Amino acid sequence: MAVAEFEVPKVQPYPLVDIPKIKPDATVHLKSFPASEKIQEGIGFPGPLVDNWHKVAIDKMGDLLNRYRSLAVYMDACVHCGACTDKCHYFLGTADPKNMPVARQELMRKVYRRYFTFAGKYFPKLVGAADLTEDVLNDWYSYFYQCSECRRCSVYCPYGIDTAEVTMAAREIMDAVGMGQKYTNEILGKLHRIGNNLGLPGPALLDTLEGLEEDILEDTGVAVKMPIDVKGAEVLLITPSADFFSEPHVESLIGYAKVFHEAGISWTLSSLASEAGNFGLFIGSYENMRRAAMRIREAALELGVKRIVVGECGHAWRVAYSFWNTLTGVGHGGEDEFTRALQAQLDPRYPAPQHICEMTLDLINQGVLKFDKEKNDHRTITFHDSCNVARGSRMGNMPGGQFVIPREIIKAVANNFHDMADETIGEGTFCCGGGGGILTDDLMEVRVKGAMPRMQALQCVVDEHQVNFMAAICAICKAQFSKVLPYYKFDMSMIGGVHQLVSTSIRLSEKK
Amino acid sequence: MSSLTFIYAFLMYAATVIMVTGVAFKIYTYSRTPAPLKIPTTPAPTTQSGVVFRIVREVVLFESLFKANKWIWIFGWLFHFGLLLVLLRHLRYFTEPVWSWVVLIQPFGMYAGFAMVAGLGGLWARRILVDRIRYISTPSDHLMLLLLILIGISGLTMKFVAHTDIVAVKQFILGLMYFDIQPMPADPILLIHLGLVSFLMIIFPISKLLHAPGLFFSPSRNQVDNSRDKRHLAPWAAELEK
Ligand code: SF4
Ligand code: SF4
């Protein structure tokens, strides 16, 4: 595919001194491919643009305002203070003012004011209200697909206004009128039809896993199993399907398998629920998100597992940690009939769902796993906090556990670790630039430019500490960085998983 | 009753009713709207008391704003806390006898008026000078600042330049409170001051001033991070289970 020419932003020395001067409409032309009618129908939406789209859109907006308190409050509460204006990596990378979170929200808010508020109905100019025209809708399509729903802006807003919530609502409205995005909606359709984002049927999975078992045996001389559809296994592992096929993702899958092997925990994958990623989140569709998550509940009941563990993926973990309990009852504390069966089955000693990093660190702390740390000595490692782990979920039982646990693992399995600058990690972490439905070639320019702030922080630890490996726990981060790193003159194999590091240095024993 | 007294008494009553019912209606709408998913932003407290503490920090210290931008924080905080002290100082017009702590803060309240106007000036300067913030400003944002500054300046003028007959003002206000209307002093600056304040109260429920109640209803700030231990089901979402 021909890639359009564009300028890769300059990486300035950290800390970021220059917030760009705004360049209106710098990226208005960057639009992802629209979804075909067939794709739209696969997830329950019409396509292409319906005739009475105006009415449908306003009705849908009214519906969402009644359904989501977040939206209702966020439409009213913004004071245009500007605190969020320089917090979005897409603004920092593109200088397009509509990539400032407040301006992105304003695309919807001006329509909200016009149709739902007194001031906007009678004094539209004064308060910045505007009719929903086709131009406005086109702007929505540009800029609500230039938001990775990373929620960085929400951390800094005095009212916690979460642009991701607004983006999701806008996308849901666009889907409702038949204006969907090809990338996200096609993948979601595959998930509904086949069970994973890559559209891999069961037999293909089985094949791949057998191949991987052989590879491990050849590499280590130890027979490590990669079981699938095993009834009565203790753990059901749900992981992003990229882990089965893509590099470097698969290295982490091997890492998980070795951990299970060494700890002697029986586990299984499921061909019914062979995907952790849930793209329903990206388009804000509760129904689609729920439908996608249902597979996990069904697989857990069918296989009779006691624990559910989730592999390395940011969006997947957010949906799993924050929403599975709500959507499908995978979790504790449900009092309805719907969740009782599952709770009776799950082992109450473990959180449900549990993150693979929580499990691994527990095993390390119990002394079950042993490592030859020097095997990672060729690496000097930094850690990239993925947005949806950092800002949308948690690990362990204390606030901020999601920052501590992966780093503890890295330090337990490798000798050389350096964090990037404080304001660019933890809750202030910069998005990889590819999250939330942006990870598509048609948006390559957006992705490259949006990655700039992360590249800048990375450059700094590369220069100061000779870092040569960036560990991440998200399938999208891994895929995005593999593509984007070369644009910034880094080696694409710099990116990898935390369990890839575990895999390198774990001491395997025969038994078990 | 003079027509001036009649107009101002009516205006103050109307403004109070509009503000109270308007905001109450908004609060009712927010509280009635379900929050179907748990979406607290990091660092999210795991207990209800943690949430209360978090909101208190946001209200008192503007914690998130502090993390975001020190200039906006300084000006915003100066303005809001200046305003708070000024409002508390104004309690002396509403109480008889005046509560002793209100007497105590009188001197602070006076200087807080300057802090308030300075904070507003700083915010306005940013709105004009910083290109990003200029871009996101609507005419109403500028007008709101103008309105608040004029209220501040007219108030300060009555205190420091052209003294108004505060005994008469107090009688008028107490009269309003007890539905025993007293004459309104015809001091032009006072008329401007009270007129603008009434206007501000009237637009409160239809303007961005809704950020005040909004702060307490923002799910990313007011939710407990306990989604694995407690199922969180909104009514419309529970319908899907049937
Ligand atoms: S959610 Fe992330 S990508 Fe979207 S506007 Fe906020 S900072 Fe930008
Ligand atoms: S920080 Fe919040 S209130 Fe301020 S402009 Fe951004 S969204 Fe609006």
Automatic annotation (TrEMBL), chain A:
<dbReference type="InterPro" id="IPR009051">
    <property type="entry name" value="Helical_ferredxn"/>
</dbReference>
<dbReference type="Pfam" id="PF13183">
    <property type="entry name" value="Fer4_8"/>
</dbReference>
<keyword id="KW-0479">Metal-binding</keyword>
<keyword id="KW-0249">Electron transport</keyword>
<keyword id="KW-0408">Iron</keyword>
<keyword id="KW-0813">Transport</keyword>
<dbReference type="InterPro" id="IPR017900">
    <property type="entry name" value="4Fe4S_Fe_S_CS"/>
</dbReference>
<dbReference type="GO" id="GO:0051539">
    <property type="term" value="F:4 iron, 4 sulfur cluster binding"/>
</dbReference>
<protein>
    <submittedName>
        <fullName>Fe-S oxidoreductase</fullName>
    </submittedName>
</protein>
<keyword id="KW-0411">Iron-sulfur</keyword>
<dbReference type="GO" id="GO:0046872">
    <property type="term" value="F:metal ion binding"/>
</dbReference>
<keyword id="KW-0004">4Fe-4S</keyword>
<dbReference type="InterPro" id="IPR017896">
    <property type="entry name" value="4Fe4S_Fe-S-bd"/>
</dbReference>
<feature type="domain" description="4Fe-4S ferredoxin-type">
    <location>
        <begin position="69"/>
        <end position="98"/>
    </location>
</feature>
Automatic annotation (TrEMBL), chain B:
<keyword id="KW-0472">Membrane</keyword>
<dbReference type="InterPro" id="IPR023234">
    <property type="entry name" value="NarG-like_domain"/>
</dbReference>
<feature type="transmembrane region" description="Helical">
    <location>
        <begin position="98"/>
        <end position="124"/>
    </location>
</feature>
<keyword id="KW-0249">Electron transport</keyword>
<protein>
    <submittedName>
        <fullName>Nitrate reductase gamma subunit</fullName>
    </submittedName>
</protein>
<keyword id="KW-1133">Transmembrane helix</keyword>
<feature type="transmembrane region" description="Helical">
    <location>
        <begin position="6"/>
        <end position="28"/>
    </location>
</feature>
<dbReference type="GO" id="GO:0020037">
    <property type="term" value="F:heme binding"/>
</dbReference>
<feature type="transmembrane region" description="Helical">
    <location>
        <begin position="189"/>
        <end position="211"/>
    </location>
</feature>
<keyword id="KW-1003">Cell membrane</keyword>
<dbReference type="GO" id="GO:0008940">
    <property type="term" value="F:nitrate reductase activity"/>
</dbReference>
<feature type="transmembrane region" description="Helical">
    <location>
        <begin position="145"/>
        <end position="169"/>
    </location>
</feature>
<dbReference type="GO" id="GO:0005886">
    <property type="term" value="C:plasma membrane"/>
</dbReference>
<dbReference type="InterPro" id="IPR051936">
    <property type="entry name" value="Heme-iron_electron_transfer"/>
</dbReference>
<keyword id="KW-0560">Oxidoreductase</keyword>
<dbReference type="InterPro" id="IPR036197">
    <property type="entry name" value="NarG-like_sf"/>
</dbReference>
<keyword id="KW-0812">Transmembrane</keyword>
<keyword id="KW-0813">Transport</keyword>
<dbReference type="Pfam" id="PF02665">
    <property type="entry name" value="Nitrate_red_gam"/>
</dbReference>
<feature type="domain" description="NarG-like">
    <location>
        <begin position="68"/>
        <end position="212"/>
    </location>
</feature>
<feature type="transmembrane region" description="Helical">
    <location>
        <begin position="71"/>
        <end position="92"/>
    </location>
</feature>
<dbReference type="GO" id="GO:0009055">
    <property type="term" value="F:electron transfer activity"/>
</dbReference>
